[in-house]
From TrEMBL:
GO molecular function, one term: acetyl-CoA C-acetyltransferase activity
EC number: 2.3.1.9
Domain Thiolase N-terminal positions: 5-250
Organism from which the protein derives: Rhodococcus pseudokoreensis
Superkingdom per UniProt: Bacteria
Name the UniProt record assigns to this protein: Acetyl-CoA C-acetyltransferase
Domain (Thiolase C-terminal) ranges: 260-381
Keywords: Acyltransferase, Transferase
InterPro entries: Thiolase, Thiolase-like, Thiolase_C, Thiolase_CS, Thiolase_N
Family membership: Belongs to the thiolase-like superfamily. Thiolase family.
UniProt entry tagged with the keyword Transferase: yes
Keyword hit for Acyltransferase: yes
C-alpha cells in the first residue's frame, strides 16, 4: 500500500470580523496560500493533479467553485482542475481526506488541499438566507422525511451547544475557564513565534487578530445567548476570515520533485451523531479512529479539536479521558478564530508544526460539523 505524505502546510494570519482581511476577495485569499505552498516546496504547478478546497456558503465571491477560481487567480496552469467541498466546519479537513484518498488509491500523486472563507464579506448562513427567498426557512424546511424523524426541534449550533453543556453538566464557570485558557495559550504561542512557520503574511498583515486579554470577571458579566442558558459569546468561536493549504504527495511525487515529507496520513475517517446535538460527533469520530488504528488516546501526543463552543471540548475530554494538557495547546477557535472552510487545514498546519516543535509522533485532529458529523485525522510526524 502506498502512503500519502504532508509536504507542507500554510495559512494566512486569521482576521477578525471586519478586520485585516475583510476587504480581500476570497479567490485572492485562496490564491495566496496556494502560491505559498507551491513556491515553498518548489513543485511544478503543472504537476498538480487536483486542487481540493473547502468553503461554506458558496455564494458571491465564494461561488462558482472557489478551488478552481483561486488556482487560476494564482496564475497557475489552466489544465489543473479544482473542486470545492462543503462538509461545513470540517470542509478543508475533508479536502485533505479526499486528496489523500486519491493518492492512496494510486489515481493521483500531487494534491493541493485547503480552504478559504471570508465571513466579513459573506456572513455565516448566507446560503440559508438566500434559501428563504425561495420559501425554505432551513435547508430541510418542508422535508416530510426530516419532520417525521426529528419533528420541529430547533436545529442550530447554539441549541446544540446548550444541549451538550446540559447533558454533560458542564457549568458556565468551567466553560469560561476553558475560554480564558484558550486566549492565554494563543497569546503565549504568538509571543513565542510558534505560528511563524505556518503563517504566510498578507501584505503587512502578519499576526492573528483574535486573541485578547480577558478575565473570568469580564466573561461572567456577559449576558447568556438564551434565557437560562450557560453560553455567552465568550465561549464561542470567533467570526473570522482566512485561508489555508496543504500539499499532499505520493512517494513517487516525493522522489520526482525531491520533496521532504514532514508527516504522513496515518488515518482518516468521518462519523455522524445526533444532528440536533449537532456538535457532539467528534466523540464517536475519535473512538472510531482509535479503534481502526489500534491506538489509545494516550498514544496521541497532541490534539487539535475545533473550539466551535467550549462545551464541545469539555464533553469530548470527559468521554475520551484525554489529557487536557495535550489539547489545543496553542489555543483554539475561541481565541484564534474559525474561518469555516479554512479551519481544517489551518488546524493541520498548527498540529504539524507543534508536533515538530515538541518532538511528538502522533497528532489527532477532529472538527464538529453542521448536520452532526465530524472528521477525524491522525497524522504521524516523520
Amino acid at each position: 500500500m502506498t502512503e500519502a505524505y504532508i509536504v507542507d502546510a500554510v495559512r494566512t494570519p486569521i482576521g477578525k470580523k471586519n478586520g485585516g482581511l475583510s476587504g480581500v476577495h476570497p479567490a485572492d485569499l485562496g490564491a495566496h496560500v496556494i502560491k505559498a505552498v507551491v513556491e515553498r516546496t518548489g513543485i511544478d504547478p503543472a504537476g498538480v493533479d487536483d486542487v481540493v478546497f473547502g468553503c461554506v456558503d458558496a455564494i458571491g465571491g465564494q461561488a462558482g467553485n472557489i478551488a478552481r477560481t483561486a488556482w487560476l487567480a494564482a496564475g497557475y496552469p489552466e489544465e489543473v482542475p479544482g473542486v470545492t467541498v462543503d462538509r461545513q466546519c470540517g470542509s478543508s479537513q475533508q479536502a485533505v481526506h479526499f486528496g489523500a484518498q486519491a493518492i492512496l488509491s494510486g489515481t493521483a500523486d500531487l494534491i493541493v488541499a485547503g480552504g478559504v472563507q471570508n465571513m466579513s464579506q459573506i456572513p455565516i448562513a448566507s446560503a440559508m438566507v438566500v434559501g428563504q427567498q425561495y420559501g425554505f426557512d432551513t435547508p430541510f424546511g418542508g422535508s416530510t422525511g426530516w419532520a417525521e424523524r426529528y419533528g420541529d426541534q430547533e436545529v442550530s449550533q447554539f441549541h446544540g451547544a446548550e444541549l451538550i453543556a446540559d447533558k454533560w453538566d458542564i457549568s458556565r464557570e468551567a466553560l469560561e475557564r476553558w475560554a480564558l485558557q484558550s486566549h492565554e495559550r494563543a497569546r503565549t504561542a504568538i509571543a513565542e513565534g510558534r505560528f511563524d512557520r505556518e503563517i504566510v503574511p498578507v501584505g503587512d498583515f502578519t499576526t492573528d487578530e483574535g486573541p485578547r486579554e480577558t478575565s473570568l470577571e469580564k466573561m461572567a458579566a456577559l449576558k447568556t445567548l438564551t434565557d437560562g442558558g450557560r453560553l455567552t459569546a465568550a465561549v464561542a468561536s470567533q467570526i473570522s476570515d482566512g485561508a489555508s493549504a496543504v500539499l499532499l504527495a505520493s512517494p513517487e511525487a516525493v522522489e520526482r520533485y525531491g520533496l521532504t515529507p514532514r508527516a504522513r496520513i496515518h488515518h482518516l475517517s468521518a462519523r455522524g451523531a445526533d444532528p440536533i446535538f449537532m456538535l457532539s460527533a467528534p466523540i464517536p469520530a475519535t473512538r472510531y479512529a482509535l479503534e481502526k488504528t489500534g491506538l489509545s488516546i494516550d498514544d496521541i501526543d497532541l490534539v487539535e479539536i475545533n473550539e466551535a463552543f467550549a462545551p464541545v471540548i469539555l464533553a469530548w475530554l470527559a468521554e475520551t479521558g484525554a489529557d487536557p494538557a495535550k489539547v489545543n495547546v496553542n489555543g483554539g477557535a475561541i481565541a484564534l478564530g474559525h474561518p469555516l472552510g479554512a479551519t481544517g487545514t489551518k488546524l493541520m498546519a498548527t498540529l504539524l508544526n507543534e508536533l515538530e516543535r515538541t518532538g511528538g509522533r502522533y497528532g489527532l485532529q477532529t472538527i464538529c460539523e453542521g448536520g452532526g458529523t465530524a472528521n477525524a485525522t491522525i497524522i504521524e510526524r516523520l
